[in-house]
């Protein structure tokens, strides 16, 4: 599967196991997949080219450069961008992301600390979900009140 098709599959899958499987399934990527320009990569992952350059400046992604010096995003870069996007959406700070990516780049010996970071992030996400659930209940209550059914 070419890089574009992989990213389309990841984005179409939305949430759930299929998106995660697509994100991590290296077997679905052809060795000859054509790298993407910054504009194409940005469009596929739903970020601006400016954001991709910012992530590069911050050391979160390191796309290769072609002979002309233009960025070329490989499938592994796109998977990293999807991960970064999901973590930012969940509220992970840039400081935590930079620490996590630095650990990834140090190799397998850092797995215990990376796991700890992900456990902490999971706890933050679970708390956010509970808080959003309460906000949704409050919103639904107000809608019932405005519909003339304060107790229903």
Q: Unreliable segments (pLDDT under 50, ≥5 consecutive)?
A: 26-32
Number of domains as seen in the coordinates = 2
Which CATH C-level class of the largest domain is it? Mainly Alpha
The CATH topology of the largest domain is what?
Answer: Multidrug-efflux Transporter Regulator, Chain: A, Domain 2
Helical amount:
55-70%
Q: How large a portion of the residues is in β-strands, by DSSP E?
A: under 5%
Could you characterize what this model shows?
- The chain has about 150 residues and is mainly α.
- Helices cover about 65% and strands about 5% of the residues.
- It has a two-stranded antiparallel ribbon with strand order 1-2.
- A hairpin with a 5-residue loop joins strand 1 (about 65) and strand 2.
- Residues about 25-30 have low confidence and may be disordered.
Which terms summarize this structure?
MerR_fam; Multidrug-efflux Transporter Regulator, Chain: A, Domain 2; two-stranded antiparallel sheet; about 65% helix; about 150 residues; about 5% strand
Ordered list of secondary-structure elements with their pairings:
Layout: H1 3-13, H2 17-24, H3 38-45, H4 49-57, E1 64-65, E2 71-72, H5 75-89, H6 94-106, H7 111-146
Short description:
The protein is mainly alpha-helical. It has two domains: 81 residues, Multidrug-efflux Transporter Regulator, Chain: A, Domain 2 (Orthogonal Bundle), CATH 1.10.1660; 63 residues.
């Amino acid at each position: 599967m070419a890089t574009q098709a992989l990213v389309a599959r990841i984005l179409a899958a939305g949430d759930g196991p299929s998106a995660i499987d697509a994100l991590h399934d290296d077997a679905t990527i052809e060795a000859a997949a054509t790298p993407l320009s910054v504009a194409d990569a940005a469009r596929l992952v739903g970020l601006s080219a400016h954001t991709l350059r910012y992530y590069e400046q911050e050391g979160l992604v390191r796309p290769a450069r072609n002979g002309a010096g233009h960025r070329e995003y490989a499938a592994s870069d796109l998977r990293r961008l999807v991960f970064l996007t999901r973590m930012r959406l969940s509220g992970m700070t840039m400081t935590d992301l930079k620490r996590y990516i630095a650990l990834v780049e140090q190799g397998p010996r850092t797995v215990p600390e990376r796991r700890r970071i992900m456990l902490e992030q999971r706890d933050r996400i679970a708390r956010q979900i509970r808080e959003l659930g309460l906000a949704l209940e409050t919103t639904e209550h107000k809608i019932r009140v405005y519909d003339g059914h304060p107790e229903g």
